[in-house]
Amino acid sequence: MPAHKRILLKLSGEALMGDDAYGINRATIVRMVQEIQDVTRLGVEVAVVIGGGNIFRGVAGGSVGMDRATADYMGMLATVMNSLALADTMRQEGMTARVMSAIAIEQVVEPYVRPKALQYLEEGKVVIFAAGTGNPFFTTDTAAALRGAEVGAEIMLKATKVDGVYTADPKKDPTATRYSRISFDEAISKNLQVLDATAFALCRDQKLPIRVFSIFKPGALKRVVQGEDEGTLVHV
Ligand SMILES: Nc1ncnc2c1ncn2[C@@H]1O[C@H](COP(=O)(O)OP(=O)(O)OP(=O)(O)O)[C@@H](O)[C@H]1O
Ligand SMILES: O=c1ccn([C@@H]2O[C@H](COP(=O)(O)O)[C@@H](O)[C@H]2O)c(=O)[nH]1
Protein backbone atom coordinates (compact mmCIF):
# COMPACT_ATOMS: atom_id res chain seq x y z
CA MET A 1 0.00 0.00 0.00
CA PRO A 2 1.65 3.31 -1.08
CA ALA A 3 2.03 6.08 1.49
CA HIS A 4 1.08 8.75 -1.05
CA LYS A 5 -1.72 8.88 -3.61
CA ARG A 6 -0.31 11.72 -5.74
CA ILE A 7 3.33 12.79 -5.93
CA LEU A 8 5.34 15.49 -7.66
CA LEU A 9 8.65 13.97 -8.71
CA LYS A 10 11.50 16.38 -9.45
CA LEU A 11 14.18 14.64 -11.50
CA SER A 12 17.68 16.02 -11.82
CA GLY A 13 18.43 17.09 -15.38
CA GLU A 14 22.14 16.80 -14.77
CA ALA A 15 21.79 13.16 -13.72
CA LEU A 16 20.36 12.36 -17.18
CA MET A 17 23.88 12.64 -18.60
CA GLY A 18 24.87 9.42 -16.84
CA ASP A 19 28.59 9.01 -17.49
CA ASP A 20 28.42 11.16 -20.63
CA ALA A 21 29.75 14.72 -20.72
CA TYR A 22 26.50 16.25 -22.00
CA GLY A 23 22.93 15.44 -23.02
CA ILE A 24 20.78 12.38 -22.43
CA ASN A 25 22.27 8.97 -21.70
CA ARG A 26 20.00 6.26 -23.05
CA ALA A 27 20.53 3.66 -20.34
CA THR A 28 20.07 6.31 -17.64
CA ILE A 29 16.75 7.62 -18.94
CA VAL A 30 15.40 4.07 -19.41
CA ARG A 31 16.34 3.20 -15.84
CA MET A 32 14.65 6.37 -14.52
CA VAL A 33 11.49 5.57 -16.46
CA GLN A 34 11.39 1.98 -15.20
CA GLU A 35 11.63 3.24 -11.63
CA ILE A 36 8.68 5.59 -12.30
CA GLN A 37 6.74 2.73 -13.89
CA ASP A 38 7.23 0.63 -10.74
CA VAL A 39 5.55 3.40 -8.77
CA THR A 40 2.65 3.91 -11.19
CA ARG A 41 1.98 0.16 -10.88
CA LEU A 42 1.27 0.76 -7.19
CA GLY A 43 -1.57 3.06 -8.28
CA VAL A 44 0.24 6.29 -7.42
CA GLU A 45 -0.54 9.36 -9.56
CA VAL A 46 2.73 10.82 -10.80
CA ALA A 47 3.50 14.35 -11.94
CA VAL A 48 7.08 15.04 -13.03
CA VAL A 49 9.31 18.08 -13.42
CA ILE A 50 12.74 17.50 -14.92
CA GLY A 51 15.64 19.95 -14.77
CA GLY A 52 17.78 21.12 -17.66
CA GLY A 53 21.29 21.09 -16.20
CA ASN A 54 22.47 18.38 -18.62
CA ILE A 55 21.91 20.82 -21.50
CA PHE A 56 21.86 24.44 -20.35
CA ARG A 57 21.57 26.57 -17.23
CA GLY A 58 20.80 30.28 -17.46
CA VAL A 59 23.37 31.12 -14.86
CA ALA A 60 26.10 29.62 -17.09
CA GLY A 61 25.01 31.79 -20.03
CA GLY A 62 24.85 34.82 -17.76
CA SER A 63 28.37 34.19 -16.52
CA VAL A 64 29.80 34.51 -20.06
CA GLY A 65 28.02 37.79 -20.74
CA MET A 66 24.67 36.65 -22.17
CA ASP A 67 21.55 38.52 -21.21
CA ARG A 68 20.39 36.48 -18.17
CA ALA A 69 16.71 36.38 -19.10
CA THR A 70 17.56 35.13 -22.62
CA ALA A 71 19.84 32.49 -21.13
CA ASP A 72 17.08 31.43 -18.74
CA TYR A 73 14.65 30.99 -21.64
CA MET A 74 17.26 28.72 -23.24
CA GLY A 75 17.39 26.78 -19.97
CA MET A 76 13.61 26.42 -19.99
CA LEU A 77 13.74 25.11 -23.56
CA ALA A 78 16.34 22.58 -22.39
CA THR A 79 13.76 21.25 -19.93
CA VAL A 80 11.29 20.88 -22.82
CA MET A 81 13.81 18.67 -24.62
CA ASN A 82 14.33 16.53 -21.52
CA SER A 83 10.57 16.30 -20.98
CA LEU A 84 10.00 15.13 -24.56
CA ALA A 85 12.75 12.53 -24.20
CA LEU A 86 11.24 11.33 -20.93
CA ALA A 87 7.72 11.07 -22.37
CA ASP A 88 8.98 9.23 -25.42
CA THR A 89 10.93 6.76 -23.28
CA MET A 90 7.76 6.22 -21.24
CA ARG A 91 5.87 5.51 -24.44
CA GLN A 92 8.47 2.92 -25.44
CA GLU A 93 8.11 1.28 -22.02
CA GLY A 94 4.32 1.05 -22.46
CA MET A 95 3.31 3.98 -20.26
CA THR A 96 1.07 6.93 -21.13
CA ALA A 97 2.55 10.36 -20.50
CA ARG A 98 1.56 13.91 -21.39
CA VAL A 99 3.94 16.85 -21.59
CA MET A 100 2.53 20.28 -20.69
CA SER A 101 4.62 23.39 -21.25
CA ALA A 102 4.64 26.66 -19.32
CA ILE A 103 5.81 28.39 -22.53
CA ALA A 104 3.55 28.35 -25.60
CA ILE A 105 5.07 26.06 -28.25
CA GLU A 106 1.88 24.34 -29.27
CA GLN A 107 3.28 22.63 -32.36
CA VAL A 108 5.58 20.70 -30.03
CA VAL A 109 3.77 20.22 -26.72
CA GLU A 110 0.40 21.16 -25.30
CA PRO A 111 0.23 24.19 -23.00
CA TYR A 112 -0.08 23.84 -19.25
CA VAL A 113 -3.75 24.02 -18.32
CA ARG A 114 -4.35 23.06 -14.69
CA PRO A 115 -7.76 21.33 -15.06
CA LYS A 116 -6.38 19.27 -17.95
CA ALA A 117 -3.38 18.26 -15.88
CA LEU A 118 -5.69 17.18 -13.04
CA GLN A 119 -7.79 15.17 -15.50
CA TYR A 120 -4.73 13.36 -16.86
CA LEU A 121 -3.55 12.51 -13.35
CA GLU A 122 -6.98 11.15 -12.41
CA GLU A 123 -6.85 9.01 -15.57
CA GLY A 124 -3.56 7.52 -14.41
CA LYS A 125 -1.42 9.27 -17.03
CA VAL A 126 1.99 10.60 -16.04
CA VAL A 127 2.06 14.38 -16.48
CA ILE A 128 5.41 16.01 -17.24
CA PHE A 129 5.52 19.75 -16.61
CA ALA A 130 8.01 21.33 -19.03
CA ALA A 131 9.58 24.81 -19.32
CA GLY A 132 9.78 25.39 -15.58
CA THR A 133 7.58 28.18 -14.29
CA GLY A 134 7.71 29.92 -17.68
CA ASN A 135 9.61 32.80 -16.08
CA PRO A 136 13.32 33.62 -16.03
CA PHE A 137 15.24 33.90 -12.74
CA PHE A 138 13.54 30.78 -11.37
CA THR A 139 14.55 27.12 -11.32
CA THR A 140 12.86 23.81 -11.95
CA ASP A 141 12.89 23.18 -8.18
CA THR A 142 10.58 26.17 -7.84
CA ALA A 143 8.51 24.91 -10.79
CA ALA A 144 8.19 21.56 -9.01
CA ALA A 145 7.03 23.27 -5.81
CA LEU A 146 4.57 25.42 -7.77
CA ARG A 147 3.06 22.60 -9.83
CA GLY A 148 3.11 20.25 -6.86
CA ALA A 149 1.03 22.71 -4.87
CA GLU A 150 -1.28 23.41 -7.83
CA VAL A 151 -2.14 19.77 -8.47
CA GLY A 152 -2.47 18.93 -4.79
CA ALA A 153 0.48 16.54 -4.59
CA GLU A 154 0.93 15.13 -1.10
CA ILE A 155 4.72 15.37 -1.29
CA MET A 156 7.48 16.65 -3.55
CA LEU A 157 10.16 14.04 -4.15
CA LYS A 158 13.50 15.46 -5.26
CA ALA A 159 15.55 12.72 -6.91
CA THR A 160 19.03 14.17 -7.19
CA LYS A 161 22.76 13.45 -7.26
CA VAL A 162 23.15 13.28 -3.47
CA ASP A 163 21.30 10.99 -1.05
CA GLY A 164 19.72 13.67 1.12
CA VAL A 165 20.14 17.05 2.74
CA TYR A 166 23.52 17.55 4.43
CA THR A 167 24.89 20.07 6.91
CA ALA A 168 26.92 21.43 3.93
CA ASP A 169 27.31 20.51 0.26
CA PRO A 170 28.70 16.93 0.53
CA LYS A 171 30.42 17.32 -2.84
CA LYS A 172 32.54 20.13 -1.38
CA ASP A 173 32.73 19.21 2.31
CA PRO A 174 33.53 15.55 3.05
CA THR A 175 32.84 16.10 6.76
CA ALA A 176 29.19 17.07 6.08
CA THR A 177 26.59 14.82 7.71
CA ARG A 178 23.13 13.92 6.47
CA TYR A 179 19.89 14.88 8.19
CA SER A 180 17.17 12.25 8.26
CA ARG A 181 14.63 15.05 8.92
CA ILE A 182 14.91 18.82 8.91
CA SER A 183 12.31 21.59 9.14
CA PHE A 184 11.86 24.15 6.37
CA ASP A 185 12.74 26.93 8.79
CA GLU A 186 16.05 25.29 9.69
CA ALA A 187 16.93 24.47 6.06
CA ILE A 188 16.21 28.07 5.05
CA SER A 189 17.98 29.68 8.00
CA LYS A 190 21.07 27.49 7.42
CA ASN A 191 20.97 28.45 3.72
CA LEU A 192 21.28 24.80 2.62
CA GLN A 193 21.67 24.89 -1.17
CA VAL A 194 20.21 21.51 -2.11
CA LEU A 195 17.10 23.39 -3.26
CA ASP A 196 16.86 27.10 -3.92
CA ALA A 197 15.33 29.29 -1.24
CA THR A 198 12.28 30.17 -3.34
CA ALA A 199 11.34 26.49 -3.67
CA PHE A 200 11.87 25.88 0.05
CA ALA A 201 9.73 28.90 0.96
CA LEU A 202 6.90 27.98 -1.41
CA CYS A 203 6.75 24.40 -0.10
CA ARG A 204 6.84 25.64 3.48
CA ASP A 205 4.01 28.13 2.89
CA GLN A 206 1.90 25.55 1.06
CA LYS A 207 2.72 22.84 3.63
CA LEU A 208 4.10 20.58 0.91
CA PRO A 209 6.75 18.31 2.44
CA ILE A 210 9.84 17.41 0.41
CA ARG A 211 11.85 14.23 0.43
CA VAL A 212 15.36 14.45 -1.04
CA PHE A 213 16.95 11.16 -2.11
CA SER A 214 19.48 9.72 -4.54
CA ILE A 215 18.43 9.30 -8.15
CA PHE A 216 21.23 6.73 -8.54
CA LYS A 217 20.11 4.31 -5.83
CA PRO A 218 18.06 1.48 -7.39
CA GLY A 219 14.57 1.16 -5.93
CA ALA A 220 14.84 4.32 -3.84
CA LEU A 221 11.81 5.99 -5.44
CA LYS A 222 9.60 2.97 -4.75
CA ARG A 223 10.82 2.79 -1.14
CA VAL A 224 10.06 6.49 -0.67
CA VAL A 225 6.56 6.09 -2.10
CA GLN A 226 5.98 3.15 0.23
CA GLY A 227 6.80 5.41 3.17
CA GLU A 228 10.19 3.92 4.01
CA ASP A 229 12.92 6.03 5.57
CA GLU A 230 15.07 7.03 2.59
CA GLY A 231 17.08 10.25 2.17
CA THR A 232 15.90 13.33 4.05
CA LEU A 233 12.40 14.57 4.84
CA VAL A 234 12.00 18.36 4.87
CA HIS A 235 8.90 19.13 6.90
CA VAL A 236 6.85 22.09 8.14
N1 LIG B 1 23.38 21.08 2.15
C1 LIG B 1 23.35 20.34 1.03
N2 LIG B 1 22.89 19.05 1.09
C2 LIG B 1 22.84 18.30 -0.04
N3 LIG B 1 23.24 18.74 -1.26
C3 LIG B 1 23.69 20.01 -1.37
C4 LIG B 1 23.76 20.86 -0.23
N4 LIG B 1 24.23 22.06 -0.64
C5 LIG B 1 24.44 21.98 -1.96
N5 LIG B 1 24.11 20.74 -2.42
C6 LIG B 1 24.24 20.34 -3.83
O1 LIG B 1 22.96 20.47 -4.41
C7 LIG B 1 22.92 19.60 -5.55
C8 LIG B 1 21.50 19.31 -5.94
O2 LIG B 1 20.91 20.45 -6.50
P1 LIG B 1 21.02 20.87 -8.04
O3 LIG B 1 20.07 21.98 -8.26
O4 LIG B 1 22.45 21.11 -8.43
O5 LIG B 1 20.66 19.56 -8.77
P2 LIG B 1 19.35 19.08 -9.44
O6 LIG B 1 18.22 20.03 -9.15
O7 LIG B 1 19.19 17.69 -9.00
O8 LIG B 1 19.79 19.11 -10.96
P3 LIG B 1 19.19 19.92 -12.19
O9 LIG B 1 19.25 21.36 -11.84
O10 LIG B 1 20.05 19.54 -13.32
O11 LIG B 1 17.81 19.43 -12.32
C9 LIG B 1 23.66 18.36 -5.06
O12 LIG B 1 24.29 17.69 -6.12
C10 LIG B 1 24.67 18.90 -4.04
O13 LIG B 1 25.98 18.88 -4.55
O1 LIG C 1 11.12 28.43 -13.95
C1 LIG C 1 12.25 28.31 -14.49
C2 LIG C 1 12.91 27.08 -14.60
C3 LIG C 1 14.13 27.00 -15.22
N1 LIG C 1 14.70 28.11 -15.74
C4 LIG C 1 15.98 28.02 -16.48
O2 LIG C 1 16.21 26.68 -16.91
C5 LIG C 1 17.48 26.21 -16.42
C6 LIG C 1 17.42 24.74 -16.15
O3 LIG C 1 16.70 24.48 -14.95
P1 LIG C 1 17.43 23.85 -13.66
O4 LIG C 1 16.45 24.01 -12.54
O5 LIG C 1 18.69 24.62 -13.40
O6 LIG C 1 17.71 22.44 -14.00
C7 LIG C 1 17.75 27.09 -15.20
O7 LIG C 1 19.13 27.16 -14.91
C8 LIG C 1 17.19 28.43 -15.67
O8 LIG C 1 18.12 29.02 -16.53
C9 LIG C 1 14.06 29.33 -15.61
O9 LIG C 1 14.58 30.36 -16.07
N2 LIG C 1 12.85 29.40 -15.02
Automatic annotation (TrEMBL):
It is found in: Cytoplasm. Pathway: Pyrimidine metabolism; CTP biosynthesis via de novo pathway; UDP from UMP (UMPK route): step 1/1. The keyword Zinc does not apply. It holds the Pfam family AA_kinase. It catalyses: UMP + ATP = UDP + ADP. Its main location: cytoplasm. GO terms for cellular component: cytosol. It comes from the Bacteria. Catalyzes the reversible phosphorylation of UMP to UDP. This is Uridylate kinase. The lineage of its organism: Bacteria, Pseudomonadati, Pseudomonadota, Betaproteobacteria, Burkholderiales.
